[in-house]
Amino acid sequence: MATTTYSTENAAGNLTARALREGFYAGLVAFGLFFLFVGLETTQNIRNELVLNQRWGLLAIFVAVAAVGRFLGVLYLQPWIASRKAARAAVVDKAAPEGFFVRNFSKIAIVALVLMPPVVVSLVGVQGSLKWVDNFGIQILIYVMLAWGLNIVVGLAGLLDLGYVAFYAVGAYSYALLSQHFGFSFWVLLPLAGILAAFWGMILGFPVLRLKGDYLAIVTLAFGEIIRLVLINWTEVTRGTFGISSIPKASVFGIWSFDVGAANNFAKVFGLPMSSAYYKIFLFYVILALALLTAYVTIRLRRMPIGRAWEALREDEIACRSLGINTVTTKLTAFATGAMFGGFAGSFFAVRQGFVSPESFVFLESAIILAIVVLGGMGSLVGIAVAATVMVGGTELLREMTFLKAIFGPDFTPELYRMLIFGLAMVIVMVWKPRGFVGSREPTAFLHERKAVSGSFTKEGHG
Amino acid sequence: MSETLLKVHAVETYYGNIRALAGVDVEVKRGEIVSLIGANGAGKSTLMMTICGSPQARTGTITFDGQDITRLPTHEIARLRVAQSPEGRRIFPRMTVYENLQMGASLDKLKHFDEDVEKIYTLFPRLKERQAQRGGTLSGGEQQMLSIGRALMARPKLLLLDEPSLGLAPLIVKQIFDAIKVLNKEQGLTVFLVEQNAFAALKLSDRGYVMVNGRVTMSGSGKELLANPEVRAAYLEGGRH
Ligand SMILES: Nc1ncnc2c1ncn2[C@@H]1O[C@H](COP(=O)(O)OP(=O)(O)OP(=O)(O)O)[C@@H](O)[C@H]1O
Ligand SMILES: [Mg+2]
Fold first, then answer.
1. Closest Cα in chain B, distance from residue A383 (Å)
2. Closest CA to A180 of A424, A355, A374, A357
3. Residue A295, beta-bridge partner list
4. pLDDT per residue over A17-57, tens digit each?
5. Which of B12, B44, B160, B215 to mutate for ligand 1's pocket (most ligand atoms within 8 Å of CB)?
6. DSSP state, A97?
7. Who lines ligand 1 at CB under 6 A?
8. Bigger pLDDT: A378 or B117?
9. CA B212, CA B235: separation in Å to the nearest integer?
10. How many CB pairs under 8 A join A and B?
């Protein structure tokens, strides 16, 4: 902070004035530039005559964006960049003490999630809560759980799996088929779906035991596609592309039902007005619990020999073997454990949608889940949760941005740009944080004395 | 000092069609330090790895502690307490020094960990200073200490070391060789050592083997080999420390 000091009030006042001035100029320049390009538009009408359309609203938006952008840039961005440069130049003698919020991030997040449905209901009413609880809450949590499950395979064991969606599909179809044919309830089938998915995880594991890196990725990719093609073509069982519909709903452990006609319908029992929102809120808590279970198991396993073996396997397979670790069982358990959580998530997906079809289990899903794991910073649960929230929540938000229609015309459907934005966000994050949101691995052995030279400040080398 | 711990008999190892070991006989007795010297590409590391079961010997037998281990998978050989510090050290780069040492003790499920880790720290005080640092960020010498330390954490009956002095400053080499000597004298640890640094290795060893093109061409006590004119000409001249 030697050259740029904005501490005195006078300097701050000057800065605001400068920002205002530069913002104004930027607006002026934008107006000059875009007046003809954006403000006026020529089209041909039916009689082939040239018509001049005036688009002052759009022009105003362009000018406003330029002006406000410049204003904010001068006022906040530039000093921030300058101070960061100065901070980087200064010798980092000790790590900045992390704030209360950062330290207790996961606890705060869990409490916030538990409180979310009642808060939303009290704010926007039972019916209005649907959007927030279902479209955002459940949707994001499904991906958080899937990404946490895949994280065991990719992030911990270092096995690049591009076919994870296969286990999601196995879980979903297990619930859909077994509940329809045998009438088992969700709570019986949930563990069963997990076990079946884990079994398929082993099936995948065997042929790829000797494969690594790119080769492993290709075979797992093929595996995911095979499962999907089987679902499409085995029509007697899966009804092919039509999918399976009217999948039974889950109940609150058999005590209260959410079927409209049932005597023990949740709303009836409590004398509430009928609404599908209660079911969604219930599902929200179910997926929250499932996701937290995934996180809990991952955290526990990381401190146990098997979790250690996974991480060691990721680092150096030959060294693992020479330390007496059976890499075959280690890989298989990683595949099976990851697949099991995929299966749980799948059966939850089926019960939430009430309908499954092979459409939902395309490669793109695998890619999104993997992208979330990579963005979060392979192995970090918090990072992955943040990545899932940003990526899935962000694309859901797009749907809400109806005001964009005002700018780009009524035909504009923001959802179509979902993947574009997803990709853009990914590039930006990877440039800004090449190892994902939380890039450094948290050691699982905790020492009382922490060394000043922690890993995060030093580059990693293989020697 | 007479009981055979490791016996390699007529072992041939292939990489595809290339024969890297062409009938090797080597014997290590309990409590001995035995070194293996030879030019680059002679097959020393291959012999080390063959003893550990990857690659496996195509013909011949390897016996350890009275048990035929020729066809055992690597991890099961390791469970018989054959520990190695392989070529290239192969520590876990993203794990801390402490965690690397824990990995070494995973055979015993960390039962003796606290006791053993103190011994390693006495042997290599540097590792204690660095215990919270990630393995990949250690210096080459520190990584070598960690690799040896990690192997020792398994409480091995036989310690295989592949070029522990590779790329290290003479002072560190001496430190590591002294440590090997101490382990051998005080705990009766059996060591089989591959070295380019023939002088230091033979001086330390009870016996030595010379390997040329996948065959053992000479063997004898450390002193004999050091005095042998052929050995001197090929491996020692100009290399005196
Ligand atoms: N994975 C492999 N595939 C094919 N050939 C190999 C492989 N590993 C080693 N070789 C070959 O086997 C021979 C012996 O190699 P080895 O690594 O055992 O030599 P070394 O005696 O340890 O040499 P150095 O002193 O340089 O480490 C060499 O000719 C080498 O090229
Ligand atoms: Mg070698």
1. 18
2. A355
3. none
4. 888 888 899 889 888 888 887 778 777 777 777 888 788 88
5. B44
6. P
7. B 15, 18, 20, 38, 40-46, 196
8. B117
9. 12
10. 116
- Among residues A360, A359, A358, the alpha carbon closest in space to that of A349 is found at A360
Tell me the chain B residues in contact with residue A444 when contact means C-beta distances shorter than 8 Å: 99
Kindly state the tokens that stand for B69.
């281990």
In the stretch 21-60 of chain B, residues with CB closer than 8 A to chain A read 52, 54
Q: How many CB atoms lie within 10 A of CB A131?
A: 17
Q: Of B54, B95, B109, which is closest to A311 when you measure between CB atoms? A: B95
**Residue B36 CA, ligand 1 centroid: distance in Å:** 15
Nearest Cα to A333, choosing from A312, A309, A366?
A309
CA of B83 vs chain A CAs: smallest distance (Å):
7
The domain spans of chain A are: 2-90, 109-360
Which amino acid is present at A14?
A: N
Q: How do beta strands B158-162 and B67-68 pair?
A: unpaired
CATH code assigned to B1-81+157-241: 3.40.50.300
Cα B103 to chain center, whole Å? Answer: 18
Over range A206-221, report the average pLDDT: 83
**Distance between CA A170 and CA A340 in Å, rounded?**
10
Whether this model's ipTM surpasses 0.85 comes out as yes
Locate the domains of chain B by residue range.
1-81+157-241, 90-155
pLDDT band at A128 (very low <50, low <70, confident <90, very high): confident
Q: What is the rounded CA–CA span in Å between residue A349 and residue A24?
A: 51
* Contacts for A417 with CB less than 8 Å, ≥ 6 apart: A398
Q: Which CATH class is domain A109-360?
A: mainly alpha
Q: Say whether A451 and B131 touch across the interface (CB within 8 A).
A: yes
pTM beyond 0.80, yes or no: no
Neighbouring C-beta atoms of residue A457, cutoff 10 Å: 11
> For residue A415, is pLDDT > 80?
no
Least-confidence region, from A143-152, A254-263, A337-346, A428-437: A254-263
| Contact check, Cβ <8 Å, A325/B75 | yes
